[in-house]
Amino acid sequence: MNNEIIQNNLDYTLFSWAKQGGLNPINASHAKGTYVYDRDGKKYLDFSSQLMNVNIGHGDQRITEAVAKQMEEVSYVYPGMATDVRGKLGKKIAEITPGNLTKTFFTLGGAEAIENAIKLARIYTGRHKIITHYRAYHGATYGAISASGDPRRFPVDSQAMPGIVHVENPYAYRCPWNSNSIEECGERALAHLERIVQLENPDNVAAILFEGESGSSGCLKYPPMYLKRVRELCDRYGIMMIDDEVMSGFGRTGKMFGIDHHGVTPDMMCLAKGLTSGYLPLGGLVVTNQIAEYFNDKPMIIGLTYSAHPTLCAAALENIRIIETEKLVERAAEMGLYIEAEVEKLKAKHPSIGDFRNTGLLGCIELVKNRITKEPTTRWNAKPSEMEATVKMAAKIRELGMFTFVRWNWIFIAPPLNITKEEVDEGLKIISQAIEIADQYCN
Fold first, then answer.
1. Options 3.60.20.10, 3.40.50.410, 1.10.260.40, 3.40.640.10; which CATH number does 62-325 get?
2. What is the CATH number of domain 2-56+327-439?
3. Running DSSP on this structure, what letter comes out for residue 344?
4. What's the angle, vertex CA 251, arms to CA 245 and CA 256, rounded to 5?
5. pLDDT tens by residue, 93-104
6. Quick one: which of 59, 301, 346, 390 has the fewest CB in 10 Å?
């Protein structure tokens, strides 16, 4: 049976971001709390919340019950109809998002939210250019992957959406301007951003799109003043500010949203992942009253067959209730501090740990061959032949019973928000054993 399940998956389905030959996926049977179990009985500590989305942990039957109850009432109606759960979820999102973000258009995921944010920004401003960071990922659909600076866009560069302009990140550990502090790096990044806006003609720039907190591009931390100054820049030139909270939202960073660390209100916010903790596919684009009112006398040209799907909305509403009542936002902040202290201890043991960047429970260990030169253990966008250390570490982590991502020279630490200290200790012990491999590459 186990072999048949694997073979059916390999023979009849396509896997994301992978060569289709030679795959060896975990044969998942069930999941509970912070663990996923395969069909051979092996358990894996989920140290990345799958794709950084299972915020409340696996197997919470309260979500199942909320979904079942909704399906008994109405499982689906077309998006032009009103439902009780749609209205309640929209109201709840308006309550927990910052400032005057008020109305939500529901999508099936983060990439669709990004696509529609780009579309609305262009319609609302009458401009066409979108500025984004090189070290950022916004999704795999046409516009979202074009907006991403992540190298996963390279194979489709020649067909990319026009009007996308990329800028450098304030990556303090490897500051492009050789700055001596995170604040100085931030100042130079802001000057760089404004120069690009001016060179591209501000009257053509519709929006600046950014991640609420950096995730799959290495958990890069913003300098303290960076997003406030980006907000000021946007206001100065009449540019929309689009906040991608797909990964950083719903408690992941120790605040309800990543941008809450910066005291800034964007014009649009994109949601998904932690909105339902991955139990069902749902995303959202939240806009201010000002943007919503612009369409009071003209059609809003966006739509999806499954927008505001009642069953999905029920899952999200219950998920947010769990996050709030169990104080998982506060717990993420607390456990994040514990992880930071424990990783600091690992630095003394492992010469390959160059940096650890963490916000709540969204963190990355960056591995180097030499702390002085900061030569990465595996370089950014390395070829498969250059990935020896990365492949070995990923294999060791899986062998020892953990699921998380090892990407180039980063190891991700982003467990469910209800993880215990004992489970953190278990996870860091496994990661420590994997990092011993990176230590062997030090010079």
1. 3.40.640.10
2. 3.90.1150.10
3. H
4. 70
5. 999 999 999 999
6. 301
